[in-house]
Amino acid sequence: MNSTPTRNLAMELVRVTEAAALSAARYMGRGDKEGADSAAVEAMRLVLNTVDMDGVIVIGEGEKDNAPWLYNGERLGNGNPPAVDIAVDPIDGTRLLADGSSNSIASVALAPRGTMYNPGPFVYMHKIAVGPAAHDAIDIDAPIGDNLNRIARALDQDVENITVAILDRARHVELIKEVRRCGARIRLLPDGDIAGALMTCMDNSGVDVLLGIGGTPEGVMAACALRCVGGNMQGKPFARTQDEENRAREMGVDFKQVLTINDLVSSEDVFFAATGITNGDLLRGVDYISHGAKTDSIVMRGLTGTVRQIKATHRLDKLDLISSVRY
């Protein structure tokens, strides 16, 4: 059925992630995680409030960061329709940026009001994410070997040619051993599991599947992007401590529940944007040039499946005249 094209909010969101990236990039390698995050948050919030929407943050800086801005429940936008849920990660890979390492990005996602999974105070989950070709090959309850074999068949590959992205954490020692036992290759990520999940969908990234325990907010954001490009993700809640597990059970959290990509974001009408802060597998970082800077962004729309790569040049002297944020 033909219909009039609706507004592509992702085209407005890229201004949000560009602003966050430009503000944060000056902190690259300076060892100041808090300063970088504060700059990205301020810039992202400023531009989000200019977007023609009635937005509520569902995935924000949240309990992990105790942030005064971009907190869960904050209302953003100019108050006009559409009514949307907002997920933000001003810097996915804050430590990467502070250390001057690769794959730090700024990202934001929107979906119709009430369609994003709200993790509440429980901020970690088991994850498995793949690209479109392996969409139907994953089962988070199945053994690792079974998943890798099914993914390999879907990709018309041998298991030893499959590359698994895993966050480099002590909690993943046994997972790493099992993946190695199965014969697959491993790409250890120091941080940044939004980027890790997105790599599974991108040509030439060299990553076929993301496995392990990572942030639930980052999982919801990644699910928004994966829905746009036809990828898939499953998750299960994870408690870091016994106290957290007891609190979760009191709130009715089921640790055996499998969260499908439809549970994480239930609408196809989803938007995602990301801009590179430091150079990485997905995006180039901010490059400073005479009188300006260059950015590299990706913009996705779930309703159409359209993915755009946007390379922009910014005149910082002009931005300084009209913005309260220093780029």
**Rg, please?**
19 Å
Helix content: 25-40%
What percentage of the residues does DSSP assign to strands (E)? 25-35%
Order of helices and strands: HHEHEEHEEHEHEHEHEHEHEEEEH
First-residue to last-residue Cα separation: 44 Å
Please, how many helices? 11
Supply the helix-strand structural class. Answer: alpha+beta
**Mean pLDDT rating:** 91
Low-confidence stretches: none
Largest sheet: 8 strands, mixed
Shape: globular
Tell me the total number of β-strands.
Answer: 14
What is the structure about, briefly put?
32% of the residues lie in helices and 27% in strands.
Task: Tell me what you see in this structure.
The protein has 327 residues and is an alpha+beta fold. It contains 11 helices and 14 strands. It has helices at 10-25, 33-48, 62-65, 94-99, 144-154, 173-182, 193-199, 216-229, 242-250, 261-264, 316-322; strands spanning 54-59, 75-76, 83-92, 105-112, 124-130, 163-167, 185-189, 209-215, 232-238, 259-260, 271-276, 287-289, 292-301, 306-315. Strands 1, 2, 3, 4, 11, 12, 13 and 14 form an 8-stranded mixed beta sheet that branches. The termini are far apart.
List keywords for this structure.
single chain, 327 residues, alpha+beta, eight-stranded mixed beta sheet, six-stranded mixed beta sheet, 11 helices, 32% helix, globular
